[in-house]
Design a protein that fits this description.
Blueprint lengths: L1 E3 L16 E5 L3 H23 L7 H24 L3 E5 L1 H6 L7 E7 L7 H12 L8 E7 L4 H23 L7 H7 L1 H8 L7 H25 L23 E6 L11 E6 L10 H16 L4 E6 L3 E2 L4 H9 L10 E3 L18 H12 L11 E4 H4 L4 H9 L1 H4 L4 H8 L3 H12 L15 H7 L23 H11 L4 E2 L8 E2 L6 H19 L5 H7 L4 H11 L1 H21 L12 H21 L4 H30 L14 H6 L5 H4 L11 H20 L5 H13 L1 H6 L10 H24 L1
Parallel strand pairs: 4-5, 4-8, 5-7, 10-12
Antiparallel strand pairs: 1-2, 2-3, 6-7, 8-11, 9-13, 10-11
């Protein structure tokens, strides 16, 4: 067991300081053995093909060899990620016992559309963050609203009033779930407090009062939503008058200020809507995050920053303390460049019918990444060192700790050339990066900083600076989070992730077919933008400090899109063989058939064991296995094919916001769970390939039954397996409405299936 710690004055007298965290290697012997076995079975399959190669091998055989070679390579990348799993255990009470002053933290919440991201969701996230177990005068919460919506601002104003009741109530009674909608819908905290003997006698009365106040808050916000414009656009709302959501000047409002820096007060709450003009690029979420970084830099300038999506509320009230155990408790700063919590979700449907709760993925991949250079930056639930976001490398940070000449800082002119022409921001950056003190004072009146904040939030501020390239979140990909994390790792920093008893943050997972496909397509496009750029991990490991195995781990993610092509091709080969009365798989009489049988059984048992270890059902395992194949043939395939027109400049795809399900997010589960668990469709062409694939395999099975020929049992089994995988699409053929496949999609798919059958037969006749 390895442990590192940060020495403090209170612990210097002790020969062995008590660590704030420890690293615990995970036992992985059995899983390694199974993974290696699968790898050698794949190699055996390839070897058998090479040994049996001859001039009579048909098209299907050669395509199968190429596909299986790709699967083998991809499995090797997968093994690399999971080979050395670690976990970090943190001890926040030890941090508090040290008696040292805790560092301030700036919190960023991003939202972009009051319709797709209802204000009540943002409000609950903000309230959960304001009530964290951390000194309130050390926290400042900034909400970025790219929609410039008076409705969002109005909701936050009302929420700040409720926070004056909610925050003291949570801390007085040690409430664990601090998002009001979740607390009042679950009741677990209340039942726990009611059953506790030493609970204050006034708790039931206070609980009823707070609940009534929250219901009133929800009612006020709902009325405002229905009206569209919450009030007269005068006074505090005058800045919202006559503006457009995507074309307006900067708006910065201090909603609540802890003026006296009371340790038992409410954290600062600041509203921001950056300037947007149609003629200037705004770089979507990455641009919003960079503006948040600059605005907070000229106002509070905390050395650490937490960013969350508007639907990702703080589920663990000690989340900041756990992060500080890693950011302060590891001896070398380079070992903890950022702390990334896993994304986890609440209100998920039973057995995860859409395969998008990612429980197993987060459990095993995150711990695998910890054994390398650290987890990827996921765009939410992440604590950053401000100096890292400002482009500092691990080597520069280490040298500044040793070389006093460097600590004297750089000239303001040099910093302005890098960070922009704001003198206030240059001074704040100098303080963060080089430890100088140029008058930045957290206790000053926040309203005095509004002018400087509006200046750094302008749409032209970043021109001729390093923002988006060497400073801040990196532009150039719709998955700006992954690209930024890659850039941080390339500068020599590591990332970490603590294991908590209760999840740090919880968000709402999208439901239904179209929404899931839209989200995944965006991810795949972003991955490919990174892969086909100068910043891809292969170049980075050759020219920067990105470790080789970490680059392979990034490559595993970036190749999800290209992986779809060989998998889709392989799914067509069994039907092609039946149509042409050929074989691409070993027959029952050949010994090589045992390789395929062993691969199928061992792989499925291996994945099933992972789900059982995560306390998930067999049905959940099957749903995830099925959805991974469906997503590969839909979103991954379309993201891969759609990337190249954008790459060649033939199209300009707009960033799509994933709608947040307000019914799920706020009201919890309902009697409509069964309907919400059914696959939904629309007329998007993304559903054509899997529907065509279903028709192809159904046609192949029909031909087998009509011909009465059962010679290619391997191919027949594969066709039946594919029909089982795409069962939601088979059901969609007989349903109507959003649960049925539209007729245009059916006709297009049937045409493609017929053409595949025709050309398969033509290929044989020509051969």
């Amino acid at each position: 067991m390895e442990s590192k710690c940060l020495s403090s004055p209170s612990t210097m007298a002790n020969p062995i300081p008590i660590p704030l965290q420890e690293i615990i290697p995970r036992k992985n012997t059995l899983k390694r053995a199974v993974e290696v076995t699968i790898f050698f079975l794949l190699l055996s399959l390839l070897s058998n093909r090479l040994l049996s190669a001859n001039y009579n091998n048909g098209l299907a055989w050669h395509l199968a060899f190429l596909c299986e070679s790709w699967f083998t390579f991809f499995w090797l990348l997968f093994i690399n990620v999971k080979w050395n799993p670690l976990q970090y255990r943190t001890y926040p009470q030890r941090l508090l016992n040290r008696g040292v002053e805790l560092p301030p933290v700036d919190i960023f919440v991003t939202t972009a559309d009051p319709v797709l991201e209802p204000p009540i969701i943002t409000v609950n996230t903000v309230l959960s963050l304001l009530a964290l177990d951390y000194p309130p005068h050390k926290l400042a919460c900034y909400v970025s609203d790219d929609g410039a919506s008076p409705l969002t601002f109005y909701s936050l104003m009302e929420a700040s009033k409720f926070a004056k009741l909610w925050v003291p109530f949570c801390k007085k009674h040690n409430i664990q779930v601090r998002a009001p909608f979740m607390y009042f819908s679950g009741g677990s905290d209340r039942e726990h407090n009611m059953a506790t003997n030493d609970i204050s006698p006034e708790f039931p009365q206070e609980w009823r009062k707070i609940k009534k106040e929250y219901e009133q808050l929800c009612h006020i916000i709902e009325e405002a939503v229905q009206k569209g414009i919450p009030c007269e656009l005068t006074g505090e709302f005058a800045d919202f008058s006559g503006i457009e959501g995507r074309n307006h000047p900067s708006i910065v409002k201090v909603i609540w200020e802890n003026k006296e820096n009371f340790s038992d007060g409410i954290p600062h709450l600041v509203y921001l809507s950056r300037e947007q003009q149609l003629k200037h690029p705004h770089h979507y979420k990455a641009g919003a995050m960079n503006v948040l970084t600059r605005v907070s830099g000229v106002i509070t300038n905390s050395p650490f920053m937490l960013n969350v999506d508007c639907d990702m509320f703080a589920n663990n009230p000690q989340v900041v303390l756990h992060a500080m155990c890693l950011l302060l408790g590891i001896e070398k700063e380079a070992e903890s460049g950022f702390v990334q919590y896993p994304q986890m979700f609440y209100g998920g449907l039973k057995d995860d019918p859409f395969g998008n709760q990612y429980v197993v993925l987060m459990e095993y991949l995150y711990h695998g990444f910890l054994g390398l250079q650290g987890p990827i930056y996921a765009g939410t639930g992440c604590f950053h060192r401000r100096k890292v976001i400002y482009g500092l490398s691990s080597e520069e940070a280490e040298n500044m700790g040793r070389n006093l000449d460097v600590v004297n800082g750089k000239s303001l002119e040099a910093l302005r050339a890098k960070f922009g022409d704001s003198i206030e921001f240059a001074k704040s950056a100098n303080q963060i990066m080089y430890g100088t003190n140029n008058g930045m004072n957290r206790s000053r009146n926040l309203s005095n900083c509004i002018k400087a904040a509006i200046h750094v939030a302008s749409s032209v501020y970043e021109y001729n600076t390093d923002w988006g390239t060497k400073v801040g979140l990196v532009y150039g990909s719709t998955t700006e989070d992954l690209l930024t994390g890659l850039s941080i790792h390339a500068r020599g920093w590591r990332s970490v992730c603590p294991d908590l008893d209760s999840p740090a943050f919880l968000g709402c997972a999208p439901t239904g077919g179209p929404i899931i496909m839209t989200q995944m397509t965006r991810w795949i496009t972003g991955f490919l933008e990174i892969l086909f750029s100068i910043r891809n991990p292969i170049f980075a490991t050759l020219t920067t400090k990105l470790q080789f195995r970490q680059s392979l781990a990034y490559l595993y993610l970036l190749l999800w899109g290209p992986y779809s092509l060989p998998e889709f091709c392989y799914a067509l080969l069994p039907a092609h063989s039946i149509f042409t009365k050929t074989h691409f798989l070993p027959t029952v009489s050949e010994p090589a058939i045992f390789i395929l049988v062993a691969l199928f059984i061992i792989y499925n048992l291996y994945t099933l064991l992972e789900y059982i270890q995560c306390r998930l059902s067999i049905r959940a395992w099957w749903n995830n296995m099925r959805m991974s194949r469906i997503i590969t043939s839909t979103a991954c395939l379309f993201g891969f094919l759609g990337f190249f027109p954008k790459f060649l400049g033939l199209s300009d795809k707009v960033f799509d916001i994933t709608p947040k399900d307000q019914a799920t997010s706020i009201q919890g589960t309902s009697v409509e769970d069964a309907d919400r668990g059914r696959f939904t469709f629309n007329e998007s062409p993304i559903f054509v390939p899997p529907t065509a694939l279903l028709f192809v395999n159904l046609t192949a099975l029909a031909m087998v039954f009509l011909d009465g020929s059962w010679l290619g049992l391997g191919e027949i089994f594969c066709c039946a397996w594919m029909v089982l995988i795409f069962l939601p699409f088979l059901k969609g053929l007989f349903r109507r409405g959003i649960y049925g496949i539209p007729w245009p999609t059916i006709w297009k798919s049937a045409t493609l299936a017929f053409l595949f059958l025709y050309f398969s037969r033509q290929w044989v006749s020509k051969g």
